[in-house]
């Protein structure tokens, strides 16, 4: 369990580091706007899902569960859309956009590893 927590902390830290590097390397802090979505992604799980990620993979529905799934998906799509929109508006460079995508990929891998670890009995 300790190795799992350490690995998740390392992956999350690497994701945040890439977010900051995308801003610092190009001297433009617009890419940090997508970090706001990293805060918004877990909120539906906390408020509507009871603090667990298990409802995301279940077929059980209901008003609040479906709303939580929708808001989680919308936040995840927003995490990808913000760098694309900023690049299209020429507010960030292509390199910063790809660093943002790499950061998002690591963040998604962190969330998936957390979900898998939370399903185990010994967690």
UniProtKB/TrEMBL annotation:
One of its GO terms (biological process) is late endosome to vacuole transport via multivesicular body sorting pathway. The keyword Heme does not apply. One of its GO terms (cellular component) is endosome. It is found in: Membrane. Keywords: Membrane, Transmembrane, Transmembrane helix. It comes from the Eukaryota. It is a multi-pass membrane protein. The chain crosses the membrane at residues 7-29, 35-56, 68-86, 92-114. Belongs to the OB-RGRP/VPS55 family. This is Vacuolar protein sorting-associated protein 55 homolog isoform X1. It comes from Coffea arabica (Arabian coffee). The lineage of its organism: Eukaryota, Viridiplantae, Streptophyta, Embryophyta, Tracheophyta.
